[in-house]
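Risk mitigation, structural track. In case the binding assays with tryptophanyl-5'AMP fail to produce interpretable data, a predicted complex structure has been prepared as a fallback.
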Amino acid sequence: MARILTGITSNNIPHLGNVLGAMLPAIELSNKAENESLYFIADFHSLISLKDAEARKNSINAVAATWIALGFDTQKNILYRQSDVPQVTELTWYLNCFTPYPMLANAVSFKEKSDRLSDVNSGLFTYPVLMAADILMYDANFVPVGKDQLQHLEITRDIAERFNRQYGDTFVVPEAKIEESVMIVPGTDGQKMSKSYNNFINIFLPEKELEKVIKSIKTDSKGVEEPKDPDTCNVFNIYKLVADATQTDFLRTKYIEGGIGYGSAKLLLYSTLMLKFSKARETYNHLMANTQELDAILKQGAVKAAAIANPVLARVRHKLGYL
Ligand code: TYM
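Fallback model:
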C-alpha cells in the first residue's frame, strides 16, 4: 500500500492550475485500490496571506467542494481540514528546530513572494516547515503537486533525513509526484496560472463570467485568415490541456493552415471547459449551497486523519524525550 497526501491552500476557489496540476492527478492516484489517500485543505497556510475570517471559511468550503466535485471518494479516502488536526503545529515546532535558517532564506518561493508582497510575515518564511509537518505527520510516500512545490518537497525530504540520521528511522521520506504535461498550467497571460498574478481561470464561475475570463486570454493580433503558431498561443496551450487528442490535433491544424480566429478558438475552449466540468460544476454548486454536508465529511475525515497522526507524533515525542 502506498500513502498519497496533498494539500490545497484555502485562500481562494481552486483555479484551473490547481485542478489540472494537482487535484485531478491526485484523484486518479486515489482511485487505485492499493493507494490510501489523504487530501486536505491547508487552512493554516491560508493565514499567511488571508486575514479575513469569512473569506477563509468560504474558501475552505470551496476547496472541499472542489475535491468532492472532481470525484474524490471520501469514503475510500480521507478529506480533512488541516486545522482540524492541530497536532501538526506541534510537529512544526519540532521540525523548525531541525531546519537550517539558510534553507528557508534561499527558498525560491519565499524570495519571489517577499519581493512582491507588502506583508512579509514569519509565517511566509517558515511556510515550508509547516508543509513538511503536513507530510511527515502522516507517513506519506507520495505527494502529487505542481512544479512550484518541488523545492518544498526537497526541503521536506532534507528535514526528514536530517532527523532520521540523528534519531534513527522516524519519518518516512516522501517523494514528489509530478505530472509532466500539467506541471505548469499557464494563465490568461501566459505566465504560470496563479492567484497572485490574477491570471487564473475559475471553472466554477457562472457561465457568462467564465466566458468573459476566457475572452480575456491574451493573444497576438493576427487576423482570422492568417496562419498562427499554436505553440506560442495562450488559448491553444490551455486548450490542449483540457481537450482530447483528436480535438487538439484539429485545432492545431486549423492554426497552422489559417482560417480560424482567436475569438472562435476561445469559444471552443469555453465550450470544452463547460462540457468537461459540467458534472463537477453541478456538484460544486450543490455543496456550496449545502455546506452542512461538507462539514460532516470534513469532521469524519479529521477523525480518520488524527488516528494516523497521533502515533506518528508519539513516535517523535518519544525520540525527543517529551514522552
Ligand atoms: P497551492 O494551494 O498554491 O497549490 C495547490 C496545488 O496546485 C498546484 N498548482 C499548479 N500546478 C500546475 N500549474 C499551475 N499554474 C499551478 N498552480 C498551482 C501546486 O503546485 C499545488 O500542488 N503549499 C501548498 C499547499 C500545501 C501542500 C502541503 C501541498 C500545504 N501543505 C503538503 C502538498 C503537501 C500550496 O500552497 O499549494
